Amino acid sequence: MNIMKPMEIEMKSFEIISRELAGRIFDRQQEPVIKRVIHTTADFEYADNLCFSKDAMDKAIAAIKKGICIVTDTQMAMAGINKEALKRCGCEVRCFMSDQDVAEKAADQGITRAAVSMRKAAEIKKPLIFAIGNAPTALMELEQLIREERILPALIIGVPVGFVNVVESKELILQLDIPYIVARGRKGGSNVAAAIVNALLYLVSPREN
Amino acid sequence: MNIMKPMEIEMKSFEIISRELAGRIFDRQQEPVIKRVIHTTADFEYADNLCFSKDAMDKAIAAIKKGICIVTDTQMAMAGINKEALKRCGCEVRCFMSDQDVAEKAADQGITRAAVSMRKAAEIKKPLIFAIGNAPTALMELEQLIREERILPALIIGVPVGFVNVVESKELILQLDIPYIVARGRKGGSNVAAAIVNALLYLVSPREN
Q1: DSSP state, residue A10
Q2: Contact assessment for residue B157 and residue B197, using Cβ atoms and an 8 Å cutoff
C-alpha cells in the first residue's frame, strides 16, 4: 500500500467514484454533494436516493456566503463538520440535543429532545441550515414550524436513517416549497448530514491541497 | 405517524430488522452487534460484511467488564459513543487526532495523524479497544505495533470506509491472531465504529426502557 497524503487519497477516491458512476450525468452543482456522500459511505445508492429541491444548491451556497448557523440533531453530525472550512466561510454550528433546558422541556411536554431542539433553534436570529441525520421528529417539528411560518430555513438537509417514521418524515419535507436536500428512503445518518454540509462548505471555500 | 419514545422506536426498528433478516442464523453473541450496525446504517450488507474473530465477543465483553479505554480515530466516532453506557461500564474513550503534539509529530515524520495517534495510544497503561472508522493508516500502524509486540489490544474494531487502502488495511487485521471485529470491503465509518462500541457496552450494561 502506498502512503499518500489525505488530500491525494481523497482525490483518488473521487476518481474511483466517478469511474464507477460511469455514464451517470448529474447536475453540475449537485454532483460534488452526491459524490461526497458516496465517498463517506461507500454506498452508491445515494446516487439515486438524494433529492434536491430545484433551488437547493443556489440558495445554500448564497446563504453560506453570507455566513449562517448550521443546526444539527446530533453531537456526532456536529463533530463531523469540518471546523476549518466552517471558520473560513464565517459560519457556525450548533447542537442543542444535550442542553439541560431541552431535556427538561422534552420531559415536561412529552415530546422528543430533537423536537424541542428545533424549537430552540427557531429562536436564533440568523439564517439557518438544518442538518438532520438522526431524528425523524426533528423533521416533523421543522415541517410544522415552517407551515406555521415561524421559520424559513435557508436549507433543510433531511437525512435521518432508520426503520420507523424515517421514510415518512422525509416525504413531509419533500412536499414543502423550501430548499432541501433529502435522502429518500431509509438510508442516511449523522455522517451523511455532515458530508453534505462539508460538500457545501468546500464549494464556497475550496481547501488547499 | 405515531410519536413513540426513543427506546420504543429502537425496539420496533430491531423487530423490523429481524423480520427482514428472516431465516438468517447468527452467532448469539454477535447478533446484537450486527443488528445494531444495520440499525445505524439501514444497510443490510453488514449482515455479510462483518467478520468476528472467534474470541472477539468473549474478549471484548470481559475487557469492558474490567473497565477499558476505547481509542477512536475520529472525533465523530467519539461523539457517537453513548457516554452514559460508557460511565456505567467504568470505561473511557479517547481520541488524539486533534492533539497539537500529534499534528506536529505527523508533520515532522511525514506520516498521518492517525498513525501518530495509534503510537500515542500505545503508551496508555490500560487495556485498550481500538475503534477505527476512518483511517486505513490507523489499522496499518496498529498491525505493525502488534507485530512488534508493543501493544496487545483487547479488541480492534476495524471499520474504515472508503476507496483507497481501506480494503487492504482491513485484510491486514484479519490476518492477525487478536480479537477483532472487521467490516470486510469498502463499507464502514465512524458511525459504524460507534455503533459496534455501543452494542458491546449495552451487552455489558443494558439500558433501561
Answers
A1: H
A2: yes
Number of C-beta neighbours around residue A198 at 10 A: 19
Residue predicted with more confidence, B154 or A22:
B154
Q: Which of B154, B160, B141, B133 is nearest to B200 (CA)?
A: B154
Which letter, b or e, does each residue of A137-171 get, where b requires 16 or more Cβ atoms within 10 Å of its Cβ?
bbbbbbbebbeeeebebbbbbbbbbbbbbbeebbe
Query: Which of A6, A42, A111 minimises the CB distance to B186?
Result: A42
Distance, in Å, from the CA atom of B43 to the CA atom of A65, rounded to the nearest integer, reads 35
User: Burial level of B5, CB count in 10 A (0-12/13-18/19+)?
Assistant: exposed
Its pTM surpasses 0.95: yes
What is the spatial distance between Cα A115 and Cα A120, in angstroms, rounded to a whole number? Answer: 9
- How far apart (Å, rounded) are the C-alpha atoms in residues A41 and B163? 10
Mean local confidence (pLDDT), A83-109: 97
What grid cell was written down for A3?
A: 502512503
pLDDT computed for residue A1 by the predictor? 55
- Option in A3, A39, A189 nearest B191 (CB): A189
Grid cell 437525512 — which residue? A159
CA of A189: which chain B residue's CA is closest?
A: B41
DSSP string, A13-53: HHHHHHHHTTT----TTTHHHHHHHHHHH--TTHHHHEEE-
Residues of chain B contacting A4 with CB distance shorter than 8 Å: 164
CATH class of A49-204: alpha beta
pLDDT of A3 strictly over 70: no
Which of the following is catalytic: B35, B39, B59, B120? B39
Q: What is the ipTM of this complex?
A: 0.95
How far is residue A92 from each of residues A82, A84, A127, A133, measured CA to CA in Å? 11, 11, 11, 18
Partners of A144 on chain B (C-beta within 8 Å) are none
The full set of domain ranges for chain B reads 49-204
Q: B126-179, pLDDT tens digit by residue?
A: 999 999 999 999 999 999 999 999 999 999 999 999 999 999 999 999 999 999
The CA-based angle A129-A135-A140, given to 5 degrees, is: 75
